[in-house]
Write a structure and sequence with these properties.
This protein has about 350 residues and is an alpha+beta fold. It has three domains: about 150 residues, Immunoglobulins (Immunoglobulin-like); about 160 residues, Rossmann fold, CATH 3.40.50; about 30 residues, no CATH class. It is built from nine helices and 18 strands. The strands form five sheets. A five-stranded antiparallel β-sheet has the order 1-10-9-5-6. A five-stranded mixed β-sheet has the order 16-15-14-17-18, sandwiched between helices. A three-stranded antiparallel β-sheet has the order 2-4-7. α5 links the parallel β14 and β15. It is elongated and about 125 Å long. The two termini are about 55 Å apart.
Length: about 350
């Protein structure tokens, strides 16, 4: 888009009228001077339009909430002309500069990423004027690029260990590698065996040392039931990022420990995921770009409809209630190892309340 200065246009029209109606050396000289300036400045802005170049650079990596996104904008003036006024405009950002002939100027824009999602990099508007401020040109440089901002992953290990299960056990059974339920075999002690694997109770009964070998933890599948409902809209808007961050961090922690996870999310679309590598993990990360998990069905029915052969179950919920506690007792009675993790026990804050 090209615009002309209204004040200059008014003056030019006045002297054009004088030139046509009255004539004379004075009005003729002024008219031709203004006309020459008008044409020269038009040529100037047209040259600049075709010989000014904008390039952008940024790190094409996975970004997480809390990261800083740095956009490098490189402005190149490929002409001998001086650009007295040029503005680089983006949404919530503008930079006006003076550009010398054949000068390259680097502009850095920093954005603190506060919310997960897919973000398009805003198109850049270049706005400039000629040296006499007669013509003003602005045009848009299309970027057509985007970045993905994933939920922040935090070190959740200590928080999980301290999370309360419904029977007040302060750490998860999946941490206890030497859990009797994971014993693969018991045999007589041989020289070189790890003394930590001695089954002391059985050794006392047999009269000689017995060794217990355990199942490889990585062979254990976990069913993870997620219920992130129960917040009013206002509370959700405040703590949404924290809630999703802790949820994703728990999934990531279990994945790094080698556990294969069947994940069931109590949402309107009842999404299910199988996590055993980083690519699967990215898929569930991208699922949490949306907020469909706040639209839900009955959680107890959801658990019952998705119970499978995996004997290790983790239930991740915002809060507990009597029905959920009774359901956990039923599952334990069916030999399932159930751990309840309450996010309200993990997220700490002076004003943090779910109720």
């Amino acid at each position: 888009m090209i615009k002309i200065n209204i004040k200059f246009l008014t003056v030019f029209m006045v002297f054009t009228c004088m030139y046509v109606l009255i004539g004379g050396q004075l009005f003729n000289s002024i008219f031709y001077l203004l006309l020459m300036i008008l044409i020269i400045c038009l040529i100037e802005v047209l040259i600049i339009r075709f010989f000014i170049d904008i390039e952008i650079f940024y790190k094409n990596i996975d970004y997480f909430v809390g990261d800083e996104f740095i956009l490098h904008i490189n402005l190149k003036n490929k002409t001998p002309l001086v650009i007295t006024y040029v503005c680089i405009l983006q949404k919530e950002f503008d930079k006006c500069i003076y550009v010398k002939s054949f000068q390259n100027i680097k502009i850095i824009r920093k954005v603190n990423l506060q919310k997960r999602g897919i973000y398009n990099i805003d198109d850049i508007i270049i706005d400039y004027k000629d040296i006499f401020n007669i013509w003003r040109v602005n045009y848009t440089k299309k970027i057509n690029k985007s970045i993905k901002v994933y939920p922040k992953i935090i070190n959740i290990e200590e928080d999980i260990k301290k999370a309360k299960s419904d029977n007040n056990v302060s750490n998860l059974n999946i941490y206890n590698k030497e859990n009797n339920n994971l014993i693969r075999e018991v045999r007589k002690y041989e020289i070189g065996d790890n003394i930590r694997q001695i089954h002391w109770k059985l050794s006392a009964k047999c009269g000689h040392l017995m060794i217990k070998n355990f199942e490889d933890e990585t062979s254990v599948n976990i069913s993870l039931f997620i219920n992130l409902n129960g917040l009013d809209r206002e509370t959700y808007s405040i703590y949404d990022e924290q809630i999703v961050s802790y949820t994703i961090s728990i999934i990531y922690f279990l994945m790094t420990k080698g556990y294969k996870q069947n994940i069931f999310i109590n949402s309107i679309d009842e999404n299910k995921f199988y996590i055993n590598d980083i690519q699967n993990f990215k898929n569930i990360n991208e699922y949490f770009f949306r907020d469909n998990f706040y639209k839900y069905n009955d959680f107890i029915d959801f658990i019952n409809n998705n119970i499978n052969k995996n004997k290790t179950i983790i239930i991740l919920s915002l809060e507990s209630n009597k029905r959920l506690e009774e359901q956990i007792k039923v599952l334990r009675g069916l030999s399932y190892q159930v751990t309840l993790i309450l996010i309200e026990d993990i997220i700490k804050g002076e004003i943090y309340e779910f109720r």
